[in-house]
Amino acid sequence: MRRRDFVSAALSTSVVACLPIDKARTSTLPALTMTGGETTLTQTELAEFAASLRGDVVLPNDAAYDQARRAWNGVFDKHPALIARCRGAADVTQAVNFARSHQLITAVRAGGHSMAGKSICEGGIVIDVSPMQSVRVDPDRRIARIDAGVLLRGLDHEAQQFGLATTAGVVSHTGAAGLTLGGGLGRLQRKHGLTIDNLRGVDIVTADGRWLRANRDENADLFWGVRGGGGNFGVVTAFEYQLHPVGPTVLNVASLYPIEQARQMLEFYFEFMQAAPDDLYIGAGMIKRPDGRAMAMISGCFFGRFDAADALLQPLREFGTPIVQTIAPIEYLDLQSRNDDNNPHGRKYYSKSGFFNDVDSSLIDALVEGFGRARAPQTGVLISPFGGAVGRVNPGDTAFYHRDAQFNIEVALSWEANAQSAEYVEWGREFWRGVMPFASSGFYVNTEMDPSERRLRENYGANYDRLVALKHRYDPGNLFRLNANIKPTG
């Protein structure tokens, strides 16, 4: 029987679907193991597990099940056997031990924003830390400590109360946990580095059920690995960040151009950013809206003194013939949430991305010509700048290796209906084949759908072998495999 058929049939016919945990101890719940095999969980085992948690165990018959299993990326419609909604590190430890002892396929969910749908699984267990929502800010030491379920909007909101922030993504309903573990790109990266460059430490539950603190002084090898190595080494239950004075008002910079000016706009943009100071974060790209209208764009912000912006931004004011141009103050919190409506939960998404060091006319040709064949109702070719503080960290200081990258380029598609999904995805792959020859060997793991082992090895470069050794030490059975997976060696 095929895996999907097994899970669908078993979950729909299980006696557990009709009886609560404490009323059906002779019933069993079918589940899938890490090897793809079939197993059963007895009602006694489920009841004991549920009793060990402060949080809840959600089963397929529960009213909360459909909402709890829903992924941000609507491409993925998976049905886990059970979802453990954890309320603290003790719950996470119990869930990890339960998953390991039964060898269940295991997903870890925080914000549920995984582009590749890895925060949910078919037939296994989801360790859901989203109920863990505490944010504590120490304004004197400029430190924030958050639980693993916090969204970026929660971190930003609490920190901005004191005029502070750290690098934290560009969509505020993203989970801080997944963003951080993959490296953490955001508007503050040129000024203050990636999110992981501002990470002071984590609390983590490893595959053997141990709770550990990892920072520069304790379990420093593990701390090195979680800074860019993803969720390969355990379930992080808390993060501690260094904060910086930011806002509350920054300078918003946005220009939209007719798509016919895209080539000239990109030439201008790449040259303009070569001399940009760290205070300036400006992205560029091309967007196609659902109404079929396509435009070129430059969009970003300036974190320096407003009186220094006029001369700096004068070349941008004078370039091209924009449809609309805005250079004006904006509340930092408003800036951080302005992309939210364009990335709603439940839409279908597909993405490919890569790091680029050298930019020439051939790359610009590939971007413009490829975008001209865009098929999905909503398509973006999005370019974000590196350099600045990102490049002043040595490649071996964190697991995130490609510190010499100058730009991240992503093709991002989204749509509502299922009918043309295969066509849209094929265009995305075709587009990426056209620009791959100009990319370096690195990519942002948080926007990659399903990287091969070869591409992962290239991405982590000289850090890869160290990551493999670390994986072998902390997760030799590869319990945490639903991620950009580093496989352990024997």
List keywords for this structure.
globular; 490 residues; 20 strands; 7-stranded antiparallel β-sheet; 3 domains; alpha+beta; disordered N terminus; Uridine Diphospho-n-acetylenolpyruvylglucosamine Reductase, domain 2; 5-stranded antiparallel β-sheet; single chain; Uridine Diphospho-n-acetylenolpyruvylglucosamine Reductase, domain 3; Vanillyl-alcohol Oxidase, Chain A, domain 3; 28% helix
- Supply the CATH architecture of the largest domain: 3-Layer(aba) Sandwich
CATH first level of the largest domain: which class? Alpha Beta
Strand order of the largest sheet: 17-14-16-15-19-20-18
Question: What is the fold-level CATH name, i.e. the topology of the largest domain?
Answer: Vanillyl-alcohol Oxidase, Chain A, domain 3
Compute the average pLDDT.
93
- Secondary structure category: alpha+beta
Question: End-to-end distance, in Å?
Answer: 31 Å
Count of domain modules: 3
Taken from the alpha-carbon principal axes, the silhouette is globular
**Nearest-angstrom radius of gyration?**
23 Å
Number of helical segments with 4 or more residues: 15
The total count of strands amounts to 20
Helix content, binned percent = 25-40%
Largest sheet: 7 strands, antiparallel
User: What portion of residues belong to β-strands?
Assistant: 15-25%
Catalogue the unreliable spans: 1-26
